[in-house]
Amino acid sequence: MRRLSVFLLALSACLVSAVWAATGFEVLTGKAFDQAVVTNFYLEGQAIPAQKRNMVLFKNPAGARVLVALLDTSGYGADITRKYNGLLITEGTLTIGGKTIQPGSYGFGLNLVNPSGPPTGSKMFNLYNQAGQKVLEYKAVRDELMGRPKPIQIEVRKQSTARLCVGRDWVELK
Question: Exposure check for the chain: N or C terminus, fewer CB within 10 A?
Answer without folding.
Answer: N
